[in-house]
Amino acid sequence: MRQIKHPAIEQVELTDIMYALSDPARMEIVGRLAQAGRQMTCGELDLNRPKSSMSHHFKILRAAGLVETVIDGKEHLNSLRLAEIEQKFPGVLYAVLKTIKLP
Amino acid sequence: MRQIKHPAIEQVELTDIMYALSDPARMEIVGRLAQAGRQMTCGELDLNRPKSSMSHHFKILRAAGLVETVIDGKEHLNSLRLAEIEQKFPGVLYAVLKTIKLP
């Protein structure tokens, strides 16, 4: 199975998390992953945007340490790194998630 | 006295706040204003960066609704819109502020 690289939580900076959350599409992905509380495929998280645009958003979410993606056959399974982020930056992501109104 | 325009709190979007906090210099300005708990001049908040760079950062902080600037003679007095932001997005800014380590 091909692996996708993710930053260790020690390398994650709050400014990168803030940047990742500065886009409505990425905010929605994070909100939907939090609401589901499980791994979701890219298809499930499709926001009716071009595939290249969604790939870009997932790349930024992974680089910021917010999302972990594992490859399972033809599927990309995405999950929120909520527990790790919460431990490093207590309360930040939970407070943000409370404000998200999903469409 | 010349006035500087600020968005009403109703117009403030969380994604704009996240973007404003995605830069270490702007994060530091916000942290210092919160720590001081009073109006501060641009001189007091100088981060040893070019004046044009600082102006740019203050412009983004104002546009995001985080900072209010009033002009008093030759001084620009800046303050954090903490109470308004807290009311609209409870807990977000406080959680972020707790993580800021000022130099």
TrEMBL record, chains A, B:
Alphabetical list of Pfam families matching this protein = HTH_20 (PF12840)
Q: What is the lineage of its organism?
A: Bacteria, Pseudomonadati, Pseudomonadota, Betaproteobacteria, Nitrosomonadales
Q: Does the keyword Plastid apply?
A: no
What Gene3D superfamilies does the entry give?
Answer: Winged helix-like DNA-binding domain superfamily/Winged helix DNA-binding domain
Superkingdom, natural source: Bacteria
Q: Which organism is it from?
A: Methylobacillus flagellatus (strain ATCC 51484 / DSM 6875 / VKM B-1610 / KT)
Q: InterPro entries given for it?
A: ArsR-like_HTH, HTH_ArsR_DNA-bd_dom, HTH_MetalResp_TranReg, WH-like_DNA-bd_sf, WH_DNA-bd_sf
Q: Write down what this protein is called.
A: Transcriptional regulator, ArsR family
Q: Does the keyword Transport apply?
A: no
Cited SMART domains: HTH_ARSR
Question: GO: which molecular function terms?
Answer: DNA binding; DNA-binding transcription factor activity
Instruction: List UniProt keywords, sorted A-Z.
Output: DNA-binding, Transcription, Transcription regulation
SUPFAM superfamilies for this protein: Winged helix' DNA-binding domain
> Which CDD domains does UniProt cross-reference here?
HTH_ARSR
Domain HTH arsR-type: residue ranges: 6-100
